[in-house]
Each structure stands twice: as structure tokens, then as C-alpha cells.
Amino acid sequence: MTATTPTNEKSRWRRVMVKLSGEALMGKQPFGIDSDVLIMLSEEIRSAVDQGFQICMVVGGGNIFRGMSSNKLGIDRTTGDYMGMLATVMNALALQNALEKIGIPTRVMSALPITAVAENYIRRRAIRHLEKGRVVIFAAGTGNPYFTTDTAAALRAAEMDCELLMKATKVDGVYSADPMKDKTATRYDALTFTSVIEKNYQVMDINAVVLCRDNHIPISVFSMFDRGQLLNILTGKNSNHTLIS
Length: 245
Ligand code: UDP
Fold this sequence. Notes:
By secondary structure, this protein is an alpha/beta fold. The protein contains 7 helices and 9 strands, in the order βαβαββαβαββααβαβ. Strands 4-3-5-2-1-6-8-9-7 form a 9-stranded mixed β-sheet, sandwiched between helices. The chain starts with 14 loop residues before the first strand and ends with a strand. Uridine-5'-diphosphate binds at residues 21-23, 60-62, 66-68, 80-81, 84-85, 87-88, 141-142, 144-145, 147-150, 152.
């Protein structure tokens, strides 16, 4: 099986970006990385790689450090943002390790040069890795303060010509109200970019939504904790997600 040919011919997508928040890696812990979660997430990614999908990933850093909280520590916002970007590098390395343990070749490419631990981000090299069937984890966000890893995911998705951005959240899509608090909340199967922007649904950083809209990259909001869901969406088997297009 080649990395470029999904076995399921019905699939609309071949190369996709998966955005994980740093908090997703925490599991039930208050901070840091939960190894069981890492294994579970890696197995989900493997199921898609095994079917020939090309997987790009961006992971956040909120489980370790957020620039916004740096003020409380007397640290400038910009310095805090660089610390947040470094946190994403740690998560990317942990994810790479977990993926490689189950036999998935993975490269970490960092927007900030840290050549002892990760390759520098070079667009054409990243595309080559994908073509060879490697998972590419884009670390250090956009490399610029005042941005988020959601925006980094949208930016890299556009640069890599991804056909879909998959935003992993705790719930399986966008709801009319918070489903954790309101039992009557219903999930939207589909939304337009315009409605997400106008109604300000708290799905993703709005800059990321705009970037996806302008580059015609649909966004799937789904739960990575529902086993098999990532592959189900990619192969069009069910619609337990919200598709923003
Ligand atoms: N960050 C940044 N520029 C970027 C991406 C991230 O400055 O392009 C910093 C920012 O401080 C942010 C932190 O890295 O708070 C962690 O990223 P994010 O909050 O997006 O992580 P997530 O919420 O997905 O865990």
C-alpha cells in the first residue's frame, strides 16, 4: 500500500491536518502528559496512516504553559509566548516518541530552530516527508508570539495543501449550547464558515477559521477520544462530527 493512495476510494480527503490541544495530552491529570492518552492518540493516528492517509499534526502547549498566564508570573507576554511555543516542542517530541514506538515514522519540524531535537520547518521538505508516508508534527506554533497553535494548524494546513483540518476536542462537534451543562444541546452536523465567524462559536481561534475559509480547507470538529472516530470521518463511515465548510 502506498502512502498516497487511501484504500477507501470514497474518501474525499488524502492529506489532512490533525490539531490536538495540549490539554488533550493531559488526560485526567491536572498538568503535563498522560502516557495512556499518548498511546491511545498514537493508535488512532496509526489507523489512518495504515489506510494510506497522509497525516500532518499540530499540538498545542496549554498542558505545560500558556503565554496568556505569563503576566501572573511577572513574565512579559512575548517571552511567555515563546515559552508556550517551547512547550509545544516538548509535546511534539512526546507524540513522536509514542508514534515511533508503534512503528509510525514521524518527523518533528519546528518553526523555531532547535536543531538538536527537531528539524527546522522547510515547506518542501515537509511535503517530501508526507509523500514518504511519515507523519509530520509541526512544533513551535507559527514561530511568532501573539498567535495560537490553532492558527499554526490552519497555516501549515494551507502550506501543505491539506484537504481537511481535523480539530480534536473533548466533545464530538459543535453544539447549540455547552453539552456538558445543557442536556438539550444539539450537535450541528454542518455549519458554514460565515455562521461560525458571525455567531462566534468557541470552536477554534477565529484567525484559524478565517484562514481555512480563505484557503477552502473544511474543518471537522470531532472527538479524538471516541475510538475509531478519526478513521470513520476520513473514510466517510459516519458523521459524528461537525463539518465547517
Ligand atoms: N504560541 C505562540 N505562537 C504560536 C503558537 C503558540 O505564541 O504561533 C504560544 C502561546 O503563548 C500559547 C502557547 O504557545 O498560549 C500554547 O499554544 P496554545 O495556547 O495554542 O495551545 P493549546 O491551547 O492548543 O494547548
